[in-house]
Amino acid sequence: MAKVKIGVIGCGSIAQHRHLPEYKMNEQVELVAVCDINTERANSVAQQYGLKAYTNYEELLASGTVEAVSVCTPNYLHAPISVAALNSGVHVLCEKPMATSEEEAKAMIEAAKTNGKKLMIGHNQRFVASHQKARELIEKGEIGKIYSFRTAFGHGGPEGWSVDGKDSWFFKKDEAFIGAMGDLGVHKTDMLRYILNEEIVEVGAFVESNAKDFANVDDNAVCVLKTESGIIGTLAASWAYNGKEDNSTIVYGEKGILRLEDDPTYSLVAQYATGEVVNYELGKIQSNDEGGQSNSHVIEQFVDAVAEDKESPVPGEEGLKSLAVILAALKSSQTKQITRV
């Protein structure tokens, strides 16, 4: 079977810890090239993997050597690079948040459609075993009507793991556009939409910068969300959880409660109103703390979609819906109003 020829654009931490090692492990992949505007970084990563190094993504795309690329750049470049890649006939896996505006996101979706290429957004929380199981249990009516939820995604901040530390683009508004809400919050809106199988329609939010004095983006946000059927809940996204990462979600229903990634041993705990408790050991959620081989399932899903010509598992339309919630949260925080998505 012919292997899928892949290039990775942007050689920062997410490329080095997730995309490159996961592509390398994948038997359906031939890694061809990497690209980074930092020449030294591009060369050093290329050397490590035995690839060709580029410092200009247009040159890489024009080379005709790759069938698909991962876009692992600062947020403000996601859309222009993805659109350029799709227009040059290359499939795209883009990191989240997919874009910095709805217009940009729609341009990406349009480019994928026009060129008949796959666009996938790297929302890995859909592939976490506990989240998949929760979706299944909720769908089966296992905990009855859903009333409420709370979810959080917080850690000490990207300076702990970004290749550039405190100088990282994550903290610069003109490159990142949005801070913790774009880094972590968008993962959780996507996860909630996925497990509840409903759209979020209204948002009230405080999106603040109160923890990192060297940054000019948000680092602490708390949102109240309402879904189309009237489920209400909270979402917290933070770069100021300094002791331990929190990636937990709790769903409250008429017959019981589901606790996801909340217990150190069991990735899903179902607590029923009858007093019965069911513990599921489904393997740990991925965190930035762990060493060893990473498998976010995003890469294998993307490669499989390209190799087998299947639908993109997280298409641009889905990325846009999750982004729209974040944009509504920003607007709510600025206007001090509840905002419709």
Task: Characterize the structure shown.
The chain has 341 residues and is α/β, with parallel strands linked by helices. The chain has 2 domains: 142 residues, NAD(P)-binding Rossmann-like Domain (Rossmann fold, 3-Layer(aba) Sandwich), CATH 3.40.50.720; 185 residues, 2-Layer Sandwich (Dihydrodipicolinate Reductase, domain 2). The protein has 10 helices and 15 strands. Strands 14-13-12-11-7-10-9-8-15 form a 9-stranded mixed beta sheet. A 6-stranded parallel beta sheet has the order 3-2-1-4-5-6, with helices on both faces. α4 packs parallel to α5, α5 runs antiparallel to α10 and α8 packs across α10.
List keywords for this structure.
24% strand; Rossmann fold; globular; 9-stranded mixed β-sheet; 2 domains
Provide a compact summary of the structure:
This protein has ten helices and 15 strands. It is an alpha/beta fold and about 350 residues long.
